[in-house]
Amino acid sequence: MPVFRAALALSGSYYLAAKLGFALTPPGSPFSMVWLPNALLLAALLLAPLRQWWVLIAAVLPAHLAAELQSGVPMPMTLGWYLGNCSEALMGAGAIRLVCGRPPRFNAFRDAGVFLFFGVLLAPVLSSFIDAALTTLLHWGEGGYWTLVRRRIPSNALATLLVVPFVLTWAQGARLSPGAPRRYLEAGIVLGGLAAASLVVFNWLEPGAGARQAPALFYAPLPFLLWAAVRLGPTGVSTANLLLAAAALWGAVHGLGPFVSGSPEDNARDMHLFLIAVTVPMLLLAALLAERRRVELETRLQRQQLAHLSRVSLLGGLSGAIAHELNQPLTAILSNTQAAQYKLAAGGEVDRGELGEILRDIAAADRRASEVISRLRALFKNSDSQQQDLDVNDVVREVLDLAHGDLTTRHVTVVQLAEEQLPKARGDRIQLQQVLLNLVVNACEAMSTDGAHERVLKVETRRGAHDGVQISIIDSGPGFGASAETLFEPFYTTKPHGLGLGLSISRSIISAHGGRLWGSGAPGRGAAFHVDLVGALPGGHPTLVQ
Amino acid sequence: MHGVDNSCVHVIDDDVAVLNALARLLGAAGLPVQTFASAKEFFAQHSPEQRGCLVLDLLLPGASGLEVQEALAGEDCPLPVVFLSGHGDVVASVRAMKAGAVDFLTKPFEAEALIAAVRQALARDGVAARVASLTPRERQVLGQLVEGKLNKQIAAELGASEKTIKVHRARVLQKMAARSIAGLVRMTERAGLRAAAK
User: Fold this and answer.
1) What distance in Å separates residue B68's CA from the closest CA in chain A?
2) Model-level pTM?
3) ipTM passes above 0.90
């Protein structure tokens, strides 16, 4: 029964918010300094499915009646305001849901804009006409119709602006910051700093001092709000906004701070306008930044998927060679086993030594096959980048093992020039294998136009600049006529069935490693591709990045 | 059947594990085996007098299995070849069979399949070697004999006396180690050499 729990929670908080509102109502005024119940109802409607709205609307009625009647509001006015409050929440929630199609998200700029226009501007304005009309009709409080409208709008707009983002961002499961305790510490510092600055501005100043010092002092909380918007996201900003408003209100109620010089109504209006002017840009800024971060994340995810796809298609092209790599040990296992069976079936003295040798060979071949499979599994998997300190010679050997069948079929002789005691390089093993495999396959294909006897693939590893490692893959093919850089352009291909993405993806992988991939070589003298990798972190341990 | 003294199974595979396993298997089946890790190693000791058969991996570094087969094809009496391949390469298998390969096995294969293929290859080589030891005239007579022709018919065909053909016929049976014409026909048929004997 989550809807009834939600209704109960809404009813309770509505009642408390209404009591708070009455406590903060200047004597003789029909409007409170801050009236949060409508905004709470709006937030609840935005979160709930449409078919449950009636439950929520019904749930606030007892809370509304209790709070208003306790404060001595006559029954007709109480019901009139219930109508006004509900119409505001329904208009806001209806319009926002209609445009967004779902609860608005404050990490999307458009959603934040829709919320501000319909929830913060339109709904308070329209409902204020109804509310003020009823209030005037029932002769409650002072002031004419237009005065009531003018006063109600900023009050309710501010309440919506403060409450709805706060409730929605926290309810939608957004956290101040994902993960690390360091981020929580940062959130604590930002909010603590904001609270301190707000207290100074709104509570320590002598009454009326704000009027003289206002321009300079008003900006004291601003750096913390900006910090929250940039670093803590929509959740952080909505929390910070609420904190700022609470401090301002506290000061105003206690006759401190800048908003105490005029009549109670003027003070309240000044405070409302000040808070609206500050919190709206913060909300939008946070939404904009969060949206950009989200787009960046999506782009990175897509790049990773593209890299995975190209890896899978690369392996697909090598499937014959890979089958060969698996069939070799399988053949050795089967033939060894059947040889042993023949020997046993022949009867007579069993040569235990020879049998032991056969079993040892079977075990070795089995291990070899399982190694091929686990290597393939790793390459086929679509996993996050895992940076570690790598023995590059090891990686090169694994790639050449994997391509062994392909190299043999194409009659390519491999010359491996590995520098001894090569420093370790930092990188993702699978991604690096992908890049090298891609370069090896390209080299093989480039050489397949040659005569059979001059196909030499040189793979060199050496110490690079700044304790890094350089890998060079040099073929004896025709080289490239075009400039080396055009080869790295997406969709550039010289193969009849190529997509032309291999090299461009390889380059983006190496760039993401902080390294460099480039080609060199003159036509007719073979092509050479070089990969520069950064060295291992001093004393670094394998860590998960991104 | 493979009576010639230096007859043996020559296995060429670049994978040491597979090479050892094949040697063990063929050895366990009672066949004499010699192993080579590459075509180069095989040709370094090869002479046209060598008898037996070849078990060849299709994928060899340097010269491929098909190239080894081609290189041997120029000899008077090339060793019969049994091919092994890592995966069913249809194009290569057709090429190999057209060039006279005895069989084309896809790895991993059953021991019986390999042994049967090797025995057939050895039989063919034995018969082929005996055919190679015949004089051109005797080879002509052999061709007529396996077609079931009588001495008289052969004499007419080859333009010789029946008496001479009788002598040739005895020499052919002796050199081919066959007891009767029926045995001779069976032998050449089983070795798939009927056409070659012509």
Assistant:
1) 14
2) 0.63
3) no
